[in-house]
Design brief:
There is one protein chain. Helices cover 25% and strands 15% of the residues. It contains five helices and five strands, in the order αββααβααββ. The protein has one domain. The protein is of the alpha+beta class and 137 residues long. The protein has a five-stranded mixed sheet. The longest helix is centred in the last third of the chain and has 10 residues.
Length: 137
């Protein structure tokens, strides 16, 4: 499982839902068809799958440890996770001071410091879609 340090709104419930479905897939991800906010990523990679493709990474792909997997993704090895609503216009990654201030402000009136992004934005809980099939979180 890959968790990025610049993504403080990492959502365990999304990862848990993906973990329940990851068996038999080389990669489970919500980054193929982005409908989650930038900074809310799900990436679960099977070790054998990763090792089989490790030597295929191009020099420009080395900064991001999974980029080469997406270039070689196919429907037989990848489980793509999307959601019914499109929240891809939201940016919750923290790469700059401006990003930090924006994300910090989301928590100003939050009921809990552990609130998921959809509560912070007043959105509905995601209805997940697995390779095109809808399923509640």
């Amino acid at each position: 499982m890959r968790v990025n340090g610049d993504s403080p709104l990492f959502e365990p419930s999304l990862i848990n839902a993906a973990l329940h479905r990851c068996s038999g897939h080389g990669l489970v991800t919500n980054l193929i068809e982005r409908r989650f906010p930038y900074g809310v990523a799900i990436e679960i990679v099977d070790t054998v799958h990763y090792l089989n493709l490790a030597d295929t990474a191009q020099p420009e792909e080395l900064e991001h440890v999974t980029r080469h997997l997406y270039r070689q993704a196919d429907t037989s090895t990848v489980l793509s996770v999307t959601q019914q609503e499109d929240h891809s216009h939201l940016h919750v990654a923290v790469d700059t001071l401006e990003d930090y201030e924006r994300v910090h402000a989301l928590f100003y009136n939050a009921a809990s410091p552990l609130a998921p992004y959809w509560e912070l934005y007043g959105l509905s809980e995601p209805v997940l879609r697995w390779n095109g099939n809808f399923d509640p979180l």
